[in-house]
Amino acid sequence: MEIRSTTEQDHDVFVDTLLTPFGLVRDTTAEDGGGAWWSALEMDRGVMAVADDGRPIGTAASYSFELTLPGDTVVPVAGVTAVGVLPTHRRRGVLTAMMRYQLEELRERGEFLSVLLASEAVIYRRFGYGPATYTRRLTVPRHRSALAAPRAGGADTGTVEVLRRAECVDLMEEVYDRYRRTQPGAVSRPHRWWALRAGQPPIAPAPRYVAVHRDADGVPDGYASYSRGDYDPVTKTVVLTVDETIAVDDAAFTALARFVLEHDLVTQIVFKHLPTEHPLRWQLADFRAGEVGGETDWLWVRLLDVPRALTARGWFADGELVLDVEDRFLGEHNRYLLTVRDGKAECVTTDRDPDLSLDVSDLGSIYLGGTTPSTLVRAGHIRAHHPALADTLFRTPRAPFTLHWF
Ligand SMILES: CC(=O)SCCNC(=O)CCNC(=O)[C@H](O)C(C)(C)COP(=O)(O)OP(=O)(O)OC[C@H]1O[C@@H](n2cnc3c(N)ncnc32)[C@H](O)[C@@H]1OP(=O)(O)O
Fold first, then answer.
1. How many whole angstroms from its chain centre is CA 359?
2. Is 224 helix (H, G, I), strand (E, B) or coil?
3. pLDDT reported for residue 31
4. How far apart are the first and last CA of the chain?
């Protein structure tokens, strides 16, 4: 077997090889995973495993995205995707070989962070990735969907307009880009994705309504992309599903949430993706009306250069921490002194005694602030001498959240 990088000429054979492990066929629609779904692949960043007889047997790729870190720093990130090994060649180490090749190649490109969405949670920890952001679904029955009057804060001075997706794609792109720059954990959606209509709705062109919110000056500052299902005669329900609510501030979010929650001729409103800590539940007049479900990991993070990654993010408490970090997959083991002063960190190697001993995948999990070090100490994954100090240092004012599907 040989692992090699791909070029544009490999596109068709790459996609054909990739579809088989997922059980898909070429002529499926964009929503089913074929068609436009893979159109934004960057073939100069692909990896292919080729058997001795020359047949491709495995694929992996990465997008060149940006990731927003705590402190609103926006940095380049590799968005790993399109990972598949033919069912006839599974469990022989093909993925392991591709992951090693890919991580080394990403480092050669100067990347210091890699992220992915895992099809199964048991695959990627061995390669140094840890779950770092989370999402959940909120279902609200229409007859209990009233919002409480805010006890502090004024009424919305903006407007909501309903458009068809095709009428407002440019506006959605602009609003998403404003939103993601101040949301830790958010991944960019490059213009190429919108232009190619790649990925999932609302980027992909499935029929959707889009409620657009404009501020008092008429500037678009949020949208909710939604669809209304058919009447189900068995359950007697009509569900309005919100793919995503993107808003640059809480006022715009609340106005859009109110709009969908007050929709006529539906029995249930489902917000498919919300951060785990979100004010919407608190805004419902009936606190028990919102039913939380589908809580799951979303973005997995892998540090490729620990000092660069730690000094890139913003910090919210001063202090010092010695981290003993083991990267078994890449065969590295280093001890770092992290010093934070006035929101900025320095990170150098040290031989001081460690405060935390941890695997690089656990560092990925605490890096964006989505999980505290002490949770992973209690889980038996991190060895700690001063967990409280580590919690204070890694804490972020806003939980990380990712909506992009790639
Ligand atoms: C970012 C993304 O693109 S996510 C999409 C991932 N792709 C898919 O889910 C498509 C369907 N699945 C597949 O194509 C393959 O089964 C893959 C890519 C998940 C795994 O490829 P393989 O070549 O079989 O993996 P490989 O043989 O290198 O396995 C390495 C180790 O991971 C384990 N492993 C790999 N996949 C799985 C899995 N799905 N469940 C449990 N363990 C797994 C193997 O058992 C092996 O463990 P070991 O080292 O203790 O023996």
1. 21
2. strand
3. 55
4. 28
Domains of the chain, earliest start first: 2-111 (3.40.630.30), 135-296 (3.40.630.30), 305-394 (3.30.1050.10)
> Which token pair is 380?
């038996």
**Closest C-alpha to ligand 1, atom 49:** 93
Determine contact, residues 214/174, Cβ cutoff 8 Å: no
Distance 264 CA to ligand 1 centre (A): 46
Structure tokens that stand for 239 in this block: 């569900």
DSSP labels for 272-325?
EEE-SS-THHHHBSSGGGPEEEEEEE-EEEEESSHHHHHHHS--SS-EEEEEEE
**Residues framing ligand 1 (Cβ under 6 A):** 21-22, 80-85, 90-96, 116-120, 122-123, 126
Residue in 395, 336, 340 with CA at minimum distance from that of residue 360: 336
**Residue 106, helix vs strand vs coil:** helix
pTM of the model: 0.96
Ligand 1 atom with minimal separation from the 86 CA: 14
Quick one: residue 315, left, alpha or beta (phi over 0 = left, psi -120 to 50 = alpha)?
beta
Among 91, 92, 127, say which to mutate for ligand 1: greatest number of ligand atoms within 8 Å of CB: 91
Torsion-angle region of 342 (φ positive above 0: left; ψ -120 to 50: alpha; else: beta)? left
> Could you tell me the distance, in angstroms and rounded to a whole number, from the CA of residue 96 to the centre of ligand 1?
8
Ligand 1, closest atom to CA 99? Answer: 28
Q: What are phi and psi of 191, to 5 degrees?
A: -50, -40
Pairwise CA distance, residues 339 & 223, whole Å: 40
Quick one: pLDDT at residue 28? 59
Distance 35 CA to ligand 1 centre (A): 25
d(CA 390, CA 373): 6
Q: Quick one: pLDDT band at residue 153, thresholds 50, 70, 90? A: confident
Per-residue pLDDT of 262-299, as tens digits, reads: 999 999 999 999 999 899 999 999 999 999 999 999 99
Determine which residue's CA is closest to atom 26 belonging to ligand 1.
93
